[in-house]
Amino acid sequence: MNVDSHPARSGIRQFAGGDPRHGPLPPLLLVLTVVTGLVDAVSILQLGRVFVANMTGNVVFTGFAIAGAPGFSLSASLFALFGFLVGAMIGGSLIGRLGNDRALLLAGGAGLELVLVIAACVITAVGSTPFTDTVRNVTAALLAIGMGIQNAVARRLAVPDLTTTVLTMTLTGIAADVRSGTNLTVLLRRLAAVAAMLGGGVLGAELVLHTSAAVTLGITAGLILIVVGGAGLAMRRPGAWRKPAT
Q: Which of 66, 105, 163, 166 is the most exposed place for a label (fewest CB within 10 A)?
């Protein structure tokens, strides 16, 4: 029997980057999903309970802050919301320039995000703890801009279940398709997305609680650099997967 004819082996192979429709994009987007967990660990634990990646949660947190709930920073939430919108606009502009080549688009988007995370890392490293409002707000804005770019790029790449920042529909798909059954590759991708976000959150919390926000963001920058490098290597590989998803 041919190896690829075995359903389980074929599913694992496609999940690991052998899917001709998406090439190496799934594993690279999983790394960015880990990044989301790390970044939100910094923002929630160090910046006044603010989301910089998940704007649904951030809007709710903004409502809590407006209502005067203790521990929530209205200014940081608003800076994050505005920053995310700016980042999404930048991502849209990037898509207009590079959107016909998914490898180039990922490399460009991750490269911009890397610069922003490094800037946030430097600011948190030189800022005294607990952070002042200025450090908190600027850091939240920088990280949110990066996550807005990441979200816009992931949306354009359109790899199913790998939005890199939101798991609601991914979890819904896992549960809703139990009775009807689902392709093994799809199931593995969904489970990996959940595991990547969870792992990023656990790692981020451990780093923030036992080291510092700067160290956490430094490691985050390292992961983004891996994505930039991986996308750069992928640009050397021609293939149909580089064309916009349909």
A: 66
